[in-house]
Amino acid sequence: MSNDVAVLGVGMHPWGKWGRSFVEYGVIAAQAALADAGVEWNDVEFIVGGETVRNGYGGYVAGSTFARALGWNGSRVATCYAACASGSAAIEAARTRILAGLCDVALVVGADTTPKGFLAPNIGERWDDPDWLRFRLVGATNPTYFGLYARRRMDLYGSTTADFAAVKVKNALHGLHNDNARYRKQVTLEEVEASAVVADPLRLLDICATSDGAAAVVLTSMRFARQRALDPVRIRAVSTVTPRFPNTALDMPDIATDSAVAVSPPAMSFRASIAHAAYEEAGIGPEELSLAEVYDLSTALELDWYEDIGLCEAGGAEQLLRDGATSMGGKVPVNPSGGLACFGEAVPAQAIAQVCEVTWQLRGAAGPRQVEGARVGITVNQGLFGHGSAVLLSK
Amino acid sequence: MSQQIMPAIEGWFTIGEEPALVGQRCTKCGTIVFPPVATFCTNPSCSSREFSSVPLSRTGTVWSCTDAHYQPPPPFIPTTDPFEPFAIAAVELEAERLVVLGQVATGFGPGDLKVGSSVELVLEPLEVRDDTQYVVWKWRPTSEASGS
Question: Does this chain's domain A5-117+213-234 share its CATH topology with A130-208+235-394?
Answer without folding.
Answer: yes
